[in-house]
Write a structure and sequence with these properties.
CATH topology of the largest domain: TIM Barrel
Strand content: 5-15%
Distance between the termini: 17 Å
Oligomer: single chain
Length: 351
């Protein structure tokens, strides 16, 4: 019964136009975030999430510039904590993770159109000292999906990990492999060796992440630099002390690098399951930590957590320009909030 009712609400939500949503669900500011923009092959990323093309990203920027007013992080911070007024139809954009394309591709477009942006960096990756385990996974998946690759469990015959049982089929292997996480990195490295994926050479040759010099230049050009933890671990899996260290140490590193007095922070994956009182205590003990950014679209949270819409989120059967995609992402974000709010109100009425 509950599933049928929710399904009916979602059906209704799909026929409400975007303009009406903006009147029903009012937000002082909306926020979009991306990870990477490029027209080049991105084997270390493309099996993790979609890679936005330059044409699509530029079209999205132009759509937002025509229909909204871009604001920088300082304006957003002041609005949240000091209740200063924002321009109508305010929009803030950001990037997570800190890929080199933020400097090489994204930055020139933002400067061209005079658009402010906040870049959240996983600080362990700065200067390409290590390759993120998820990028290693993407490289491996790209390898086994090549037309000339013949997957067979025998490729793991010299495998050193006694707990590993090779999957019988390629889809089974990929499904299992994608679920590995940071504590499994030694196992991921062994699989890289078995598949002849030399991630160290890739790291040295590609230099996939931002450097400290690039970061300082971006800050000098007016962009805000934020933190995205030290290691990009899912914080809900960590102890309270580890959570505090991932947030505080990464924001301190960005402050030392850029000279920013206040450093915003974005959660890897999401802030799902995290104790808001604990997060408030962390911010109280470390006043240099600014707004905390999450990934829940247009949903509201505690006052110091600001949600964003994932601009690259896959949309089944979606075609068209970057403007069409960004408009659809915004519409879907409104739909999700509307369904959740109506459902919550009806639950409260029954009680």
């Amino acid at each position: 019964m509950k599933q049928r009712f929710t399904s009916s609400l979602k059906t209704i939500a799909r026929i409400i136009p975007l303009g009406l949503y903006r009147q029903i669900i009012q937000r002082d500011v909306i926020d979009f975030f991306w990870h990477i923009v490029s027209d080049d092959p991105m084997p270390h990323v493309q099996h993790l999430y979609p890679v936005e093309s330059i044409k699509e990203f530029e079209a999205a920027l132009l759509y937002l510039k025509e229909n909204y007013t871009f604001i920088n992080y300082q304006q957003l911070h002041s609005h949240i904590f000091k209740n200063t007024q924002l321009p109508s139809n305010a929009v803030h954009i950001s990037f997570d993770d800190g890929y080199a394309e933020c400097f090489q591709v994204v930055r020139p477009l933002l400067l061209k159109y005079e658009i402010p942006c906040t870049f959240f960096l996983t600080t362990d990756l700065i200067d390409n000292k290590i390759l993120f385990y998820r990028n290693k996974q993407s490289l491996c998946i790209d390898r086994v999906m090549q037309p000339d690759f013949d997957y067979h469990p025998s490729i793991f015959r010299n495998f050193n990990n006694q707990q590993f049982t090779p999957s019988k089929t390629l889809p089974q292997f990929i499904s299992w492999f994608e679920d590995l996480r940071l504590p499994d990195e030694p196992l991921i490295d062994e699989i890289c060796r078995a598949l002849d994926v030399n991630w160290q050479s890739f790291l040295n040759d590609k230099q996939p992440y931002l450097t400290a010099d690039q970061i300082r230049q971006m800050h000098a050009e007016g962009f805000t630099i934020g933190a995205h933890t030290l290691s990009h671990r899912k914080l809900v899996d960590l102890s309270r002390d580890e959570i505090a260290n991932e947030i505080n140490s990464s924001t301190n590193m960005i402050a030392d690098m850029t000279g920013q007095e206040i450093v915003p922070f974005s959660f890897p994956h999401s802030a799902w399951g995290l104790d808001r009182d604990h997060l408030a205590q962390i911010r109280l003990r470390h006043p240099n930590i600014g707004v905390l950014f999450d990934t829940k679209g247009l949903h509201l949270d505690v006052d110091f957590i600001h949600n964003r819409i994932w601009a690259e989120r896959p949309i089944p059967n979606m075609s068209g320009t970057g403007a069409d995609r960004i408009r659809e992402q915004l519409t879907r974000a409104y739909q999700e909030v509307w369904v959740d709010e109506i459902s919550a109100k009806l639950r409260n009425m029954r009680q």
